[in-house]
Amino acid sequence: MRLMRNKDISIVWTCFLMKIVGLWMATDLAQQRRRNFALIYTVGAIFIATCIAIRDFYFSWGNFNDCVYIACNILYLMIVFFKIAVLYVHRMEFYDLVAFTEKNFWHSNYDIQEKLILDNCKRICAIFIVVLSFCAQGTCAGYMVTPLLANVGKNESERALPFNMWVDFPTAMSPYFETLFIIQILCVYHVGVCYICFDNFLCLLNLHVASQFRILQHRLKSLNYIVQMNIDVPVSDKGRLSYTDTCYSKLRRCVRQHQALTEYCKNLEDIFTMIVLGQVLFLDMIICLVGYQIFLSDSPPSRNVSLVLNMAGTLCQLFMFTYSCDGLIRQSTDIGPAIFSGPWATLPMNKTGRSLRKNIIIIIMRSTRACHLTANGFCTVSLETYTGVLSTAMSYFTLLRQVYSLRRDSKSS
Question: What is the pLDDT of residues 10-32, one digit of tens each?
C-alpha cells in the first residue's frame, strides 16, 4: 500500500512539528533517543518560560496593562503544558491511532472520485495549517522585534529583553544580554511550535476521517449502480441472484469500514476530549485578553502588529477547530441517507436479500448517532461552538473594559 503522506504538505509539516515536540513514534532505538531528547528540551523550555513569566507577573503586580500582557503569556504556557501532559499520558493510544491512520487513510489506493474527495481534504488542511502557522510565526516574531526596535538609540546599559528578568546581575550588558535574548527567543518559538502542532494534528485527523465518511458514502452509492444496471434482469435468472450476492459482499466491506470509522472516532474522543475542553476554555479567555491589549492598552506599534496576528491566528484556530469537528458530525450522519437512497426494494427476497436489508437498517440506525468530539462530555464541539466562544469572550471583554474604565476614572479623580 503506497503512502501519500510524502505528497501532502499539511501532513509532512504537522508530523515534523510533532517530532520537534518529541511526541511521535520511533522506529528504532536511535530515533527513540532523539524523541526523548526533544521532549526533555520541550519541557525544559516551557519550565524556563514559566519561571520568567511568573516572576515578571509578581514584580509587575499593580500595573494592570502589564499584568494582562503577562497573563496572556502564562495562559499560553499553561495550555501547552496541559496538552503535552494529556497526550503523554495517552501516548500509546495516540501512537496506535497514528499507525491506523497511516495504514488506512494515508495511502493512494483510491479510485478517481475518492481521490477527488481526498484532494479537497488536503487543500482545506493546507489552507488552515499555512494560515495558522503564518500567524503563529508572526506572533513569535513580534516578541523578538518589539525589544529590538525599543533598543534603537539606547545605551548598552538601557537595553530591554523580550521579557523582564528581575535579577540582580546586569542583564543589559554583554554578553548577558545576548545570551538571555537568545534563550528567551528560543523558548518563545518552541512554545509557539508546541501550541499549534497539537491543534494542527487534531484538525488533520478530523478532516481526514470526515473524508473517509464521504468515501464510504461514495462506495455505498456505487452499490446502487449495480442494482440499477441489473434491474431489468428476470428474477429467475441466475444473474439476478449473482449480483445480489455481489451487493451483499460489497456491503459487508462497507459495514466493516463503517464500524472501523466509528471505533476510530471513539478512540479520538478518548484521547483528545480533555484537550478539547482545555482548548475551549483557553480560547474564551485569550480572545478577551488579546482584544483588551489591541483596543484598550497602550502597546508599542510592533507589539500591536504581533497582537493583531495573534488575534487572527486565534480566530483561525477556533474556526479550524470547530469546522473540522462539525464536518465529522455532518459526514457521519450523511451515511444513512446515502444508503437509503438506493433501490433496495428491487432485490429478491431470498436469504441473501433479507440479510442485506437487515444490514442496511443497522447502518441507518447507527448513522443517526453522529460521531463527534466533546469537551470532556460537557458539550459537543461544532460550528455552534464557534459563535458560543465568541459570545463568551465578548462578555468577558465587556467586563474587563468596565474594570479598565473604573481604574481610569479612579486615577483621574
Answer: 888 999 999 999 889 888 899 99
What is the rounded distance in angstroms from the CA atom of residue 309 to the CA atom of residue 311?
5
Backbone CA torsion sign across 292, 294, 296, 300: positive
- Length of the chain measured in residues: 413
C-alpha cell read off for 344 = 433496495
> Is 141:246 a contact under the CB 8 Å cutoff?
no
Handedness of CA 309, 311, 316, 317 (dihedral sign): positive
Residue the block writes with cell 500595573: 63
For the chain, how far is it from start to end, CA to CA, in angstroms? 74
Using the 8-state DSSP alphabet, how is residue 261 labeled?
A: H
70-95 confidence digits (pLDDT tens)? 999 999 999 999 999 999 999 999 99
- Report the C-alpha dihedral over residues 195, 197, 200, 206, rounded to 10 degrees: -110
pLDDT band at 230 (very low <50, low <70, confident <90, very high): low
Integer-rounded Cα Rg, in Å, for the chain is: 27
Strands (E), 347-403: none
What does the alpha-carbon distance between residue 407 and residue 14 come to, in Å, rounded to a whole number? 44
Using CA atoms, how far apart are residues 338 and 352, in angstroms rounded to an integer?
Answer: 21
Q: Where are the alpha helices (DSSP H) in 105-164?
A: 112-150
List 380's β-bridge partners, or say none. Answer: 374
Residue 158 is given by DSSP the state: G
Distance (Å) of CA 264 to CA 101, 260, 375:
9, 6, 17
Please, where are the H alpha helices in 60-111?
Answer: 64-89, 91-104
Q: Is residue 315 classed exposed, middle or buried when 0-12, 13-18 and 19+ CB atoms within 10 A define those classes?
A: middle
* Cα distances (angstroms) measured from residue 160 to each of 53, 54, 144, 172, 278: 15, 18, 11, 7, 33
For the four alpha carbons of 293, 296, 302 and 308, in that order, the dihedral sign comes to positive
* Identity of residue 153: G
Q: Which three cell numbers stand for residue 102?
A: 497511516
